[in-house]
Description:
By secondary structure, the protein is α/β, with parallel strands linked by helices. It has 7 helices and 7 strands, in the order H-H-H-E-H-E-H-E-E-H-E-H-E-E. It has a single domain (about 5-200), classed as Vaccinia Virus protein VP39 (Rossmann fold, 3-Layer(aba) Sandwich). The chain has helices at about 5-15, 25-30, 35-50, 65-75, 90-100, 135-140, 170-175, and strands at about 55-60, 80-85, 110, 125, 150-155, 180-190, 195-200.
Amino acid sequence: MMNTGLITRYTTALYSAPEACRPRYDEFRDMFSDGQLKSKIWLAEELSKLQDLSGKTVAIAGSWYATLAFILLEYSKNKNLNLVCIDIDKRCEEFARHLRKEHESEIVKCVTQDMFRHHYTEDIVINTSCEHLFNLNDWLNLIPSGVTVVLQSNNLAHPTHVSCVKSLDEFKSQTLTNFSAVLFEGELNLGVYTRYMIIGRKA
C-alpha cells in the first residue's frame, strides 16, 4: 500500500515549483489516477518479491514526474536505493528539485534525456510505457546482458499509444527474444484497460 504522504509531497511541490515546470491539471490527475497508482504499486510489490532492492541502482526510462521512483523507495528496506529517472521533458527534472527531500538528492536523480541515448549501467532497468515505443526491441537492445528488466504495457487505445497490445501473450511476443529468463509475467485488470507486466533477465 502506498504512503499517502507521496501525494502530499507532490501537492506541496506545486506551491514551490515555478509554474513553467509544474504538471498541468490533466497531468496531475492522470499521475495519481487509480490505474497509474495501482500499476506502479503492483510493479514495486512484484519486483521486491524477486530481489532485495536495497543497494541496487535503477534506471526508470520515461519516468515522467518520478512517482514510481518514490514508490520504489518505500519498498527499499534501508533507503539506499539509487534511482535515475530519465525523461525527455525537461519540466520533469526541474520539478523533481522541489519534490526531493534534502537527503534524497543523491538517491533520486532526474535527467532530461532521450531514453534511447542513455548509457545503461544500472542493475535494474524499468520502462512502464512500452506502448509509446514504435519498436520496443530497438530500445531493449541498448541494455546489457544480465540486467533485470521490468516492462509494462497496456491495451488502452490512445493516439500516443503506438504499440498497444491486446493480451499478455502479444506483449510477450514483442519482448521474449530479448530475455534469457522470465522472472515474472502477469496482468492487472484496471477496469477501463488492462496493464501487462514482464520482469526478466536481459539476454
